[in-house]
Amino acid sequence: MQERFELALSRIAQMKEENAVKEYQPFFSAVAEFICECAKQYQWIENGGLAQADLEELKAKNEALYSDILKENYETSYANPSYAVQALGEELGVLCSVLYTEVRSLIPFVYERNLEEMTIRLELFLEAYNLFDCKINEDGMVPAAEELRELLYWYVSDYSDIETERRVKEQVDSSLTFATDIIMQNDYSDVKYLYAYGERVTDNEIKTAEYIHSLPEATIDKMAFTFTEGYRKGFEAAGKDLSKKDTVNIRYRLGFERVIKKAIEYFAGMGLKPVIYRTGADIFTRKAAGKIGYYGAVANPQYDYDHREDMACLFDGHMVTRRLECLTAAYEEYKEAAAKHAGPACMEVFGEEIFEPIPKDANPHYSEEQQKLVVDYTSQAGMITNTYIKREERSFTIIAFPVAEIGENFPAIFEEVIALNTLDYTLYQNIQQTIIDTLDTAEYVHIKGCGNNRTNLNVQLAKLTDAGKQTKFENCVADVNIPVGEVFTSPVLKGTTGILHVSKVFLNDYEYRNLELKFENGVIADYICDNFTEEEKNKKFIEENLLFHHPTLPIGEFAIGTNTTAYVMAQKYDIGAKLPILIAEKMGPHFAVGDTCYSHEEEVRVYNPDGKEIIAKENDYSLLRKTEPKKAYFNCHTDITIPYDEIGLLEAVLPDGSGVAIIRDGRFVLKGCEELNKPFL
């Protein structure tokens, strides 16, 4: 492998000075320059440069790897599909931009010192250069776009086994300790450790890390204990056996390592070892929306947005079959480790500048036929994963904290969020039980907006056959889903009809303005927002980033958030738009589109603290899991919250047609919920 790497690098270094491919030479020379910078940093790391460098050198090294895609340089970068099309032609330009994006995935492998993964990408780039060289200098013509597409296609197909095995191993094998070593081998008195990952590092990560380092040990302990205890309680509450598990996947953002180090110690007390992997950076592992794993600063969110569907250049039925076969083979290889994996523990962040994407015609986009294939692949991949990491045997927890970029109130907001994450468990449990007792008598819930909010929606509820032993709603306090504050159910689809509207909401990394969904018998019949001036762009934006290419989605969850403390904090600091859904969903009624909260766990019996069994876990789609499993799940679940100030009425409607108001004009009016209005005073 070393020999292959050195041969490829030597040829690429020569390429920088050549002019063999005429008008395409600037592209190949620019990418070759990037590769040589990566190789130079690889050698520097091998020689101990990370340990010896001062902060200024580390910053310069980091800048050199990411400067090409930063906002100020992106308009003239070949990583920008629009610029690549302008410089290289419509079809070849898009493919060259996809090629360069894949080459840019070298960065993590440089810092992980993974010679095989680096060599694979160098050889891909050389193949592309040789294609242009041969066609231009031997045949006297430019390569057809199909020839470059085919080269990329077989790269993905041929290496799918290696890359899928790598990813599955990262997810379940605790012997891979790259990130764990960074976390455990530092005292955090010096922020230089942030540069050891190879992730983009900015003032945001540095200031966040410095602030967390300044906190008393008791505060760090409180944060880590809340995080890990929620995980343990999740197993306990669901009656799942944690003692059978030996790994936990920890996901976090750079800057929070001191807390994660303490969390690892708490997890060790539960018999769990950490598996910590990086968010996907290459075409094999990158997600179209959201980031799974640890990561640093997003160098340029527009770059990520432009390349979220790069696979569209290659995706077909053969690719679906090939990748599913590789996924099954990889899980077979690691099936023992997968069976002992307990699930993810996620520490999310919020507070960064809100990103508004710019749609571009040059970006790769899935065709209608490919969209069907994506949906099919996602469904089958989810079923394969669940076969080896069984949903009914694992759990999770999610908690969130602000980062320094949230502004001058960062320390005050951080303190309030810590308090928010540790609110009185029992107080909320009792209040929420009062709400559930009322909802259990209802046939449906009616929600109506106020002011400019156009919501007018009926949510049909399941029927109880034994009211003394059964309940429709789960009493959700602070275990897997921190902070406290919601009751939720899986609605009956038939009869769930009306308009859901919210003036502004942040979903899956993107902001939606005046999002409106029309439901007919529990499924989305129409949708619109006004992010863009053209209706077509608005619909496509929703289709790609909320429906995830499904023609429609059902309502999988209806919930009433009860965390008025979180709502008042958001109003106080004007940060409502920056809060993650984890907190935002507790700040009003919310509606999830996609799968139910009990997806793949319908057979697991779940009970509220009062001993009643939750029976509303199914809908017409999940019921198909035994007869038509491909149609049972959508592999997505997106919560949409209407804030309290946009709610005119939320009432439980009884079988006789009378209504019992729970929220009126943004305040809780149900007897027994008075405590929830105190934060408003």
Gist of the model:
By secondary structure, this protein is of the alpha+beta class. It has three domains: 2-143, no CATH class; 178-185 and 200-398, no CATH class; 423-680, no CATH class. Helix 13 packs across helix 14 and helix 16 packs parallel to helix 18 (368-388).
Describe it:
With 681 residues, this protein is an alpha+beta fold. It folds into 3 domains: 2-143, no CATH class; 178-185 and 200-398, no CATH class; 423-680, no CATH class. It is 43% helix and 16% strand. The protein is built from 23 helices and 19 strands. The strands form 4 sheets. Strands 12-11-10-6-5-17-18-19 form an 8-stranded antiparallel sheet, covered by helices on one side. Strands 8-9-13-14-16 form a 5-stranded antiparallel sheet, covered by helices on one side. The longest helix is centred in the N-terminal third of the chain and has 28 residues, at 145-172.
Name the descriptors.
single chain; 681 residues; 8-stranded antiparallel β-sheet; globular
Count the beta strands.
19
User: What strand order characterises the main sheet?
Assistant: 12-11-10-6-5-17-18-19
Q: Determine the fraction of residues in helical runs and give it as a percent range.
A: 40-55%
Overall, the morphology is globular
Model regions low in confidence, pLDDT < 50 over at least 5 residues: none
Major beta-sheet overview: 8 strands, antiparallel
Number of distinct helices:
23
Radius of gyration: 26 Å
